[in-house]
């Protein structure tokens, strides 16, 4: 069904309004930059996993029927903006992915509404200024975007998706910084340490020039990964004493595993999603359900709430219109599990033949049916009257009479 209501719903506060006190909403200093964080493999994997999962989900507009509380999907141009082309140059999938990445790393993501389209605003380039007239509540927001040029935007032009946090670059900055340093340390060991590494001892005193030549010669022959494993040949009077520890002796392997677990907790994702050895679910459906409930639903709900607030006017909200993601793809099961669940729903009469066929991507049949069982009989607790719903038969055992409800 077509939808008649307008896109905009916000009251326009002019610059000469009564809101005179400005409060600059500054962002806490980041402990680690976005670029440094995304160079950590487990962080990159987690960000890509979550952002790709949500960006590929379709968003639809629904309305709740007041009479029977049923839900009806609404045809509207805004749905196309959220699922296909958000603007002239960007697809909806790329816009949603960028928004989710900002949401995770910076705690907020921003979308700019212009000419019926949606544009992504980089969170790191946004400055918020709040205005209040009573010192308590916020009456108006103004946004300053530092892109190619510095542009001021009104709150009616911006959709804010807020996580109510400072983002992982701040809240989880210490853990991410530690992970980055751990990677740098491991790389440094591989790039600069000699294998084997240790101390050269001489039975006689060496001059500074001799020490310098020996050091350069040693480094050119044995230092670095590409030169590891070479046979060491020592001159008379020199003795080599190994000092370096193996990675397992330095607990680098255990530290790496622990860091992956910490990063998984930061992103609130099951560790098995970025570390296959940590999978504790044998069922793909169970793993997907946990991922959806614990990781994605809070983000999805924040996006839906922001869209309802900024893309629906007051009349639409009062009539029960709302945006909702279709999350069925996340819970996609294996073929055997899917056929089993569909068959059970069909056998219990919860869905019809055509509804069941649609769930397994098969075409409809000409005549649609529900599967009903004659095994269930209703017995009145007081009178003892038996009713067979599927046959329309009522058996009155007290009077010994049988009546057909259709007659």
In words, what does this structure look like?
- It is a single chain.
- This protein is α+β, with helices and mostly antiparallel strands and 407 residues long.
- The chain has 3 domains: 262 residues, no CATH class; 33 residues, no CATH class; 36 residues, no CATH class.
- Helix content is 37%, strand content 19%.
- The chain is built from 12 helices and 16 strands.
- The strands form 5 sheets. Strands 1-6-7-8 form a 4-stranded antiparallel β-sheet, with no helix packed on it. Strands 13-14-15-16 form a 4-stranded antiparallel β-sheet, with no helix packed on it.
Task: Map the helices and strands.
Elements: E1 21-25, H1 34-38, H2 41-55, E2 59-64, E3 71-74, H3 77-83, H4 92-106, E4 108-114, E5 117-121, E6 126-132, E7 140-146, E8 150-154, E9 158-162, H5 168-171, H6 173-192, E10 198-202, H7 208-222, E11 238-242, H8 252-266, H9 284-311, H10 314-318, E12 321-325, H11 335-347, H12 353-359, E13 378-379, E14 386-388, E15 393-396, E16 401-404
Antiparallel strand pairs: 1-6, 2-3, 2-12, 4-5, 4-9, 6-7, 7-8, 10-11, 13-14, 14-15, 15-16
